[in-house]
Design a protein that fits this description.
Layout (H helix, E strand, L loop, with lengths): L2 H7 L2 E3 L17 H16 L5 E8 L2 E12 L2 E4 L6 E2 L4 H14 L20 E4 L2 E4 L6 H6 L13 H9 L7 H9 L16 H13 L3 H13 L20 E4 L4 E4 L21 E2 L1 H12 L3 E2 L2 E2 L3 H7 L6 H5 L14 E3 L4 E3 L14 E5 L3 E6 L4 E6 L8 H13 L10
Helix pairs in contact: 2-12, 3-7
């Protein structure tokens, strides 16, 4: 890392969000001096070449109390990080897709236990590969199972099973349209029988196509017209406008040989323009301010500044544990990277803390969260009425959990008032 980049990386500056007032942390029960721990830990990761830069945000009781930038746009981009930087949020797209589907659900477009094949006929008569033999699936996958990753789908991350290899060969990530994606995916056998285990998967991408079929809009159009525009999220896209491309943070990967981050090669970077298949599982690019607005809508029971996207009861249902113990724990030892943290289960599109004592980090029961593969992360804690967001950009880091947990510890240790004790 050259000296110009290093100088930028060792700075952490308070940022002023364009459309959001940042209030005194003491006014909502957080100690300002102790909250500086957030900047300190981020700066350590920058100095150790574990991240090039980051933006962090903390809000409580509907008020933003901390937003800060640190480091640079990239190891090859020495510009100091800015609060309006654009990040590939990858799987943080999933909660947005789930909200879109639930908006249609509230309008009576489907029932959660409807078979997916009722609306996407390509998924009729699915098979499961068991002991090398293709057999009819024991049941049809449902829309609720798409939202809970219990539909029997996978991601093709493993090499120990023919279905995983078939996913890799199908190259779903190269799909050019929704029809192309569904055609490729539905031709593959299921990895598991539906409703037998939690297994992280392309289910949210299928859910995104379902939104398209039921609404008559592309996912890009639905998000823009029914979520982003009403909430004032003007910096969240599948296709980044040309005039905003310079705000994109550089993509990085962890280089185990050097023990530091490296620029992600061009052939591994996802495009940011001319996209025609809109991945409901991982396609969005956003800013920390925009994503806070989305989370604030959820924290407030489905509405933000007079705009209601979902009913209070729908958000409560979305963010409660949806898994039985057997489904949650089935396959945990064999597929740990597809599994959940100890003390965590899954709602509709989000992870949910069910047992804080088992989670390995300060947490609250009912807290919901998710993250992206490039180390973006959010959590919403209804008990403490608190939101935390971390935006950085590095794939494959062995310290991902450590980074995310450090953000939580640095936040919670600054609390001077506990809402759960009121």
């Amino acid at each position: 890392m050259n000296t110009v980049v290093l100088a930028a990386c060792l700075l952490a500056s308070a940022a002023a969000l364009a459309d959001v007032e940042v209030v005194s942390s003491s006014s909502v029960g957080l100690d300002a001096d102790r909250l500086e721990h957030v900047n300190a830990f981020i700066n350590r990761y920058v100095a150790d070449n574990k991240i090039a830069g980051a933006v962090t945000l903390i809000a409580r009781r509907g008020q933003v109390v901390h937003v800060a930038t640190a480091g640079a746009f990239g190891i090859d981009d020495p510009r100091p990080m800015t609060e309006d930087a654009l990040f590939r949020i990858f799987s943080m797209t999933k909660p947005v897709t789930t909200v879109a589907a639930l908006m249609l659900y509230e309008k009576g477009a489907f029932q959660l236990n409807d078979p997916v094949a009722k609306y996407l006929p390509d998924f009729a008569d699915m098979t499961v590969l068991i002991d090398g033999k293709s057999v009819p699936a024991a049941s049809a996958m449902t829309i609720r199972q798409l939202m809970t990753h219990t539909a029997g789908l996978t991601y093709g991350w493993y090499t120990d099973h023919p279905v995983e290899l078939a996913y890799q060969q199908a190259q779903l990530e190269n799909s050019t349209t929704s029809d192309d994606f569904i055609s490729r995916l539905s031709a593959l056998p299921l990895r598991f029988n539906p409703n037998t285990r939690y297994h992280y998967s392309v289910a949210s991408d299928v859910l995104g196509v379902l939104v398209e079929k039921l609404s008559g809009l592309t996912l890009e159009q639905f998000f823009a017209e029914h979520i982003f525009l009403p909430l004032g999220m003007h910096n969240t896209f599948f296709n980044v406008p040309l005039e905003k491309q310079d705000r994109l943070v550089q993509s990085h990967m962890w280089d185990a040989k050097t023990g530091a981050i490296a620029a992600l090669s061009e052939d591994l970077r996802r495009p940011t323009a001319n996209i025609t298949f809109f991945s409901g599982g991982g396609g969005l690019i956003s800013t920390i301010e925009d994503y806070w607005v989305f989370l604030e809508m959820l924290r407030n029971g489905g509405s933000h500044k007079g705009v209601r996207l979902l009913g209070n009861k729908t958000v409560a249902y979305m963010t409660m544990d949806q898994l039985t113990a057997g489904i949650r724990d089935h396959g945990a030892e064999q597929y740990p990277s597809s599994h959940l943290y100890p003390g965590q289960s899954f709602g509709l599109g989000v992870g949910v803390i069910t047992d804080p004592a088992q989670s390995g980090v300060i947490s609250s029961a009912g807290e919901y969260s998710w993250g992206g593969i490039a180390n973006t992360k959010f959590w919403v804690d209804p008990q403490e009425d608190l939101i935390g967001i971390l935006m950085t950009q590095v794939v494959g880091a062995p310290y991902s959990d450590e980074l995310r947990f450090a953000m939580k510890v640095a936040t919670y240790q600054a609390l001077t008032e506990l809402d759960n004790a009121r």
